[in-house]
Amino acid sequence: RLYQIPFGMPNCEDESEARTLYLVGDFSAPAEFFVTLGVFSFLYSMAALVLYLRFHSLYTENTKLPFADFCVTVCFAFFWLVAAAAWGKGLSDVKAATRPSALIAAMAVCQADGVLCNAGTTPAMGLANISVVR
């Protein structure tokens, strides 16, 4: 929800007053889907572990239970692939929206003649990139 994050920019005509720039975009849905699926996968794997260890005889006697377990695991694998792709796209959109050159282009104060705006440092996205790789 980038639209909730304000940036204070200086006003070159009147130094005491600052304008506020709001980013554009809401990329929370892919992230929420990714995290929700991760939580459900964890809960299912814990339940399956209890089933395998505690109720091993029930699992081996019933032929439908291993097949149902296989089907649920395949569904989780498919949705994990979809969630990772959605989060990867969402992350690339967040990177594009927060790129320093895009932020400078959105600031009206930087468009005036004789004004030189510098981004300073680039945002560190290493941990976000790792979350997509997992």
Please explain how this structure is put together.
With 134 residues, the protein is mostly helical. The protein has one domain. The protein has five helices and two strands, in the order E-E-H-H-H-H-H. The protein has a two-stranded antiparallel sheet. A hairpin with a 7-residue loop joins strand 1 (6-10) and strand 2 (18-22). Helix 1 runs antiparallel to helix 3 (64-97) and helix 3 packs antiparallel against helix 5 (126-133). The radius of gyration is 24 Å and the shape is rod-shaped. The two termini are 23 Å apart.
Oligomeric state of the chains present here? single chain
**Number of helices in the DSSP assignment:** 5
Secondary structure category: mainly alpha
Query: How many distinct domains?
Result: 1
Q: What is the H/E order? A: EEHHHHH
Number of DSSP strand runs: 2
The level of helicity is 55-70%
> Which term fits the overall shape?
rod-shaped
The major beta sheet can be summarized as: 2 strands, antiparallel
Mean pLDDT across all residues, rounded? 81
Terminal Cα span: 23 Å
Radius of gyration: 24 Å
What is the spatial order of strands in the main beta sheet? 1-2
The low-confidence runs, each spanning 5 or more residues with pLDDT under 50, are: none
